[in-house]
# Entry
Amino acid sequence: SAPLEPFAVTIDFATGALVPDPDVLDRRLADLDGYFVADIDDPGVGAYTVHEVRVPPTGNNLLSSTTVLAPGKVGDEYFFTKGHFHAIRDRAEIYLTLSGEGLLVMALEDGRTVTKEMRPGIANYVPGHWAHRSVNTGTTPLVFYAVYIGDAGYDYATIAERGFPVIVVEGEEGPEVRPNPRY
Ligand code: F6R
Ligand code: ZN
# Structure
């Protein structure tokens, strides 16, 4: 395909806002109905926002976006993103955390799970085949920049139905990763 024009975007590390910022997606707790162990009190509360860099979603391009995940809990569980496998399973991704703190939960189809810390300066590599969800364990927005192969796509259904093998809850001494009672 024909070369694209080189371009740049400016990223605000604190808010995740892009300049320019043409494609913004807002997720409320209502969009996470059925994802938490406890019931959601207020479905209108904002959970996260995704700001996408506009590039054709093809296998020769790199898509990128910032995610701004609010602090908060439903029951004992910290706010999280829906989480997904890539529709093309082997497509990899990198998450670079810009502000806040959290955990990146990754799981294979067979249930094997790896959890990694997210904090400013850490670049997490998510290999293909690993479903991924970010969890805000802090008290400020968790902001990260994701870069992924353009044709990766999304498979949300598997996670929407089964959840992840683990949940992240607030324990006596901070965040705890526990088996998901509903997995
Ligand atoms: C793209 C990617 C991220 C997420 C974003 C929101 O492949 O992993 O840009 O899409 O953090 O999370 P989800 O898509 O799980 O709602
Ligand atoms: Zn992804």
User: Anything to note?
Assistant: The radius of gyration is 16 Å. The chain has one helix and 15 strands. The mean pLDDT is 98.
